[in-house]
Amino acid sequence: MNRLTLKLIVCALALTLFVGAAAAQDSTPEAETAALSAAPAMSLPPAVSLSGLSPVYQLVNRCSAAALTIQLSYFDWEGNYTTAINGLNPNEADVAVRLDEMVTFVNQFGFEAVERFGGTVDILKALVAGGFPVLIENSYYEGPGGYDAWLGHNRVVMGYDDAQGVLLTYDSLLGNGPDNTGRPIPYAEMDERWRPFNRDYLVVYRPEQAEQVRQILGEDWDVETNHRRALGLSQAELDTDLEDGFTWFNIGSSMLALGDAPTAALAFDRAFEIGLPWRMLWYQYGPLEAYLQMGRFEDVITRAQSVITNTGGVEESYYYMGLAHEAIGDLQRAIRYMEIAVYGNRYYTPAATELARMQAAAASTS
Question: Which of 266, 264, 318 is nearest to 286 (CA)?
Fold first, then answer.
């Protein structure tokens, strides 16, 4: 399938998804505009800086636990960095933690959290102005000795200043600005660093604050609507100079979340064709899921093996290797891969569930 055909499919599907949802809610032009609005409709102060966050400087492969510890410290969490490490990625080789894993973790301590996509600078500002520091995944390339190539990294946005055009961040690698008042990152630079992760973000709050968060997020509170709007942001890039592998990868991620694995797989194909950082699948696994759903098991194996060859610390790769090998009839190898996934992260519930199922299937045939 050529690029133009794929582009037309994506545009048509995005329009269909949007129009269908708008019609179900309200068929007015005003409602259609609101559904794709990139910013909450509220008046914000020109500058905000949240105080009360505790700095954390990370260990190797532990930026996720560090960022979440920083975020939770704002809410006077009684745990610490060690608590977060032990609950998120106790295996030092584990190079990444998904945001949904963080949601599960914070729920254990009486907090609530939401993971959303298609974020904007305005949404970050609105959340911060409402008293909620925001954890985001974004690009990092400031390190020495090979770490100046593209990597994923987590930062906490805890302020902004419109006069300077910057977001203020706590960063477990690069610091927290003068006197811990926030390390500034220009709005445009932050968006560009954020875009490879479909502009995802994590909001933590106390249960009694749920309605306040819902009001700030507006229609993005609804998960499906949020995925549609994230898709709209990526689709808008197709006719600009921003179109690249990240654009198509994000389209694939949004399409997959909306239940369209065939189009997602095609979008991921296009992303790989254009080119992506070699570490991309360390952090995001949509292509493996889409290819699995489409019965493209050899593609799952090839992509997952490329990750495993470079690092053994991505348990999701072993998980998908296990599922793909089971699908092609190699149950014993599938079990071995799933065992590695569980060993890599004992909190990886899907892998543990699949392993138990596979072991039962093997036992029943022996």
Answer: 264
Q: How far is CA 239 from CA 7, 9, 253, in A?
A: 10, 14, 19
Question: Which residues share a beta bridge with 175?
Answer: 171
Range of the domain at 144: 47-221
Q: For residue 5, is it within any domain? A: no
Does 191 fall in a domain?
A: yes
pLDDT digits (tens, 9 = 90+) for 111-158: 999 999 999 999 999 999 999 999 999 999 887 665 678 999 999 999
Which of 192, 221, 250 terminates a domain? The answer is: 221
Following DSSP, what letter does each residue of 67-78 receive, concatenated? HHHHHHHTTT-S
Q: Read off the pLDDT of residues 63-93 as tens digits, 9 standing for 90 and up.
A: 999 999 999 999 999 999 999 999 999 888 8
Q: Three-class SS string for 208-252?
A: HHHHHHHHHHHHHHCHHHHHHHHHHHHHHHCCCCCCCHHHHHHHH
Q: How far is CA 26 from the centre of its chain?
A: 30
From residue 49, how far is each of 36, 42, 127, 153, 156 by CA, in Å?
28, 18, 12, 22, 12
59 pLDDT band, cuts 50/70/90, is confident
pLDDT tens readout for residues 6-31: 665 666 565 555 444 443 344 333 33
Residue 172 has pLDDT above 90, yes or no: yes
Residues 291 and 194 in one domain: no
Residues contacting residue 282 through CB under 8 Å, at least 6 positions apart: 95, 96, 152, 307, 311, 314
Q: Within the chain, where are the H helices?
A: 3-25, 29-35, 63-73, 81-88, 99-107, 121-129, 187-194, 210-217, 223-237, 245-257, 261-274, 286-293, 297-310, 315-327, 331-344, 349-365
Q: Is 38 left (phi over 0), alpha (psi -120 to 50) or beta?
A: alpha
pTM of the predicted protein model: 0.90
